[in-house]
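User: I'm writing a short methods note and want a consistent example. For 2,5-diamino-6-ribosylamino-4(3H)-pyrimidinone 5'-phosphate reductase, I'll paste the sequence; you return only the structure tokens, no commentary, since I'll be parsing the reply automatically.
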Amino acid sequence: MSAAPRDALEFPESDRAFLEPQLPPRDGSTSRPDMPFTTLTFATSLDSSLALSPGTRTALSGPQSKAMTHYLRSRHDGILIGVGTALADDPGLNCRLDGVGGYGGEGLDCQPRPIVIDPTLRWDFSDDSKLFQLCREGRGRGPWIVTTVHEPPAEKVSLLKKYGGQFISLNIPTSESGTHRIDWTQLLATLRSNGLRSVMIEGGGHVINSLLEPTYMGLIDRVIVTIAPTWLGQGGVVVSPARRFDGEGNSMSAARLKNVQWYPFGEDVVLCGQVKI
Ligand SMILES: NC(=O)C1=CN([C@@H]2O[C@H](COP(=O)(O)OP(=O)(O)OC[C@H]3O[C@@H](n4cnc5c(N)ncnc54)[C@H](OP(=O)(O)O)[C@@H]3O)[C@@H](O)[C@H]2O)C=CC1
Ligand SMILES: Nc1nc(O)c(N)c(N[C@@H]2O[C@H](COP(=O)(O)O)[C@@H](O)[C@H]2O)n1
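Assistant:
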């Protein structure tokens, strides 16, 4: 057991009960055996922004909801982001709750596997990247990087390997605009076949908007959103999936939640629900 660092987060037992029905079952079971339990979770402003502008990191969660997010991290096998988030945030993507591995607990107990979607290997990670610093300190796992590149550079392969990570190569089609569109069904099935029973998808904007498209929204088991009492203003990274139309061509809402529950956490509120199909 390692000593818990002074910055370890606390998420009180009294706050855990409400979340339990929203979380992956502790026995690892899923409604679809070939798919992981999939949670979409992020923090947003009142004007649906994840960050002040593309390429910047913006703290939205207050201390209590941040601790909740880390509790979610402790309850999922994997935590997934897009390359835009990796570039903007240099994230840690570990769990910093008191009592988990590296924070007073054994080994890497309850540390999720970071997964980065990086179709063309834009993320120029190095030993100095936050994720790898945490690996060296025994406080996080090496990432899996999902890419279209079938032969990634040898030095990146060995760097990842050194930290227990890997590249996962998938065929990801390129759209007319030059960006890539992962097939979420294929990706999630691949993560399941690599042993992950649960995955939380944190963002950023492109990833969330894509996952909320009609083709993919049925893959989401739960949505857990922290809403912070602030407007970030125009120009932010916005969660706003493409508009949908009914059979007569009338516009309708892009997606809606059912079985909704709200919980206040300090100045924030946390919204939990299931996507209404
Ligand atoms: N408040 C919060 O909770 C969170 C905030 N953020 C913030 O979000 C911002 C980053 O968001 P954003 O710039 O939108 O980048 P993303 O993290 O959403 O990454 C987008 C990139 O992922 C790749 N990709 C592959 N397949 C898909 C697909 N099907 N759908 C979407 N992307 C795909 C593309 O790479 P390529 O272009 O190479 O093809 C795309 O450009 C940062 O500022 C970060 O701080 C992020 C997470 C949570
Ligand atoms: N829950 C939450 N609240 C915020 O205010 C945020 N900005 C984010 N961002 C997500 O968390 C990642 C950073 O994680 P580390 O603290 O570096 O481990 C970031 O990359 C986003 O995915 N989340």
